[in-house]
Amino acid sequence: METRESTHYPIRKATSADIAELIRMQRALQENTDAVRDNLLRPNPTGAGRLYAYYLDRIGDELTQLLIAHKAESKRAVGMGTGKIWVHADCLPSQSGELIDLWVDPEHRGRGVGRRIIEQLLQFFRAHEIQFLAVNYVNGNLAAESLWRKLGFEPALVTATADRLDVQRTLSVPSKRILSIAGRSWSAERSKAYEPITRSG
Ligand SMILES: CC(C)(COP(=O)(O)OP(=O)(O)OC[C@H]1O[C@@H](n2cnc3c(N)ncnc32)[C@H](O)[C@@H]1OP(=O)(O)O)[C@@H](O)C(=O)NCCC(=O)NCCS
After folding, report:
1. Which residue of 46, 88, 103, 188 has the lowest C-beta tally within 10 Å?
2. Domains and their CATH numbers in the chain
3. Cα–ligand 1 centroid distance for 5 (angstroms)
4. Which of 99, 90, 89 is nearest to 130 (CA)?
């Protein structure tokens, strides 16, 4: 059904002409993530050039659907979302669908764009008979938590991060003991080359 939002914000498959906008939104999404948490792995800025190749690859991949929402009159992108099908050789179910990098520019939020991108990704998964869906989002991202919960996603696997030194302190394990457990011969060989590591713990 055609709604006011669907005519104002058409959604279509991304093409190579959209890669600059995809990279802009990817960076904004990363900044958003950084603002929620600072104890996560993050892309190395020196590898940013590889994003172009990454998106080109995704756009050409039959098992990926990369969508763009844009403003009807200006053609400027305002949102994106990706659906990726994974084939598992040794797991059941043997295929799953992942929702990746959902983003809507802040000034266009709360108008159903995110929800419509997801709806379209679901059609892609349905066409490939994918039942099992997964999404990763940062703990503390309230909009994401609310959105995914409302759609029936339930947190099932936790990734917890820590600084090794903090864990060592908590365990009251001196760093030298950790090294000896890791293997005396290895550490003896390497201790000269990696002296700063052995000193700092
Ligand atoms: C999450 C995001 C994509 C939602 O886009 P949107 O176009 O504003 O979403 P919609 O208008 O379609 O709203 C869908 C649902 O999202 C939830 N939601 C959106 N913004 C929210 C907010 N600020 N607080 C709480 N819930 C929110 C609501 O459950 C809403 O359902 P409702 O309309 O029944 O209230 C957008 O806020 C965004 O880009 N956030 C930053 C990036 C991000 O967190 N991405 C998700 C990572 S997995």
Report:
1. 46
2. 4-150 (3.40.630.30), 164-200 (no CATH)
3. 15
4. 99
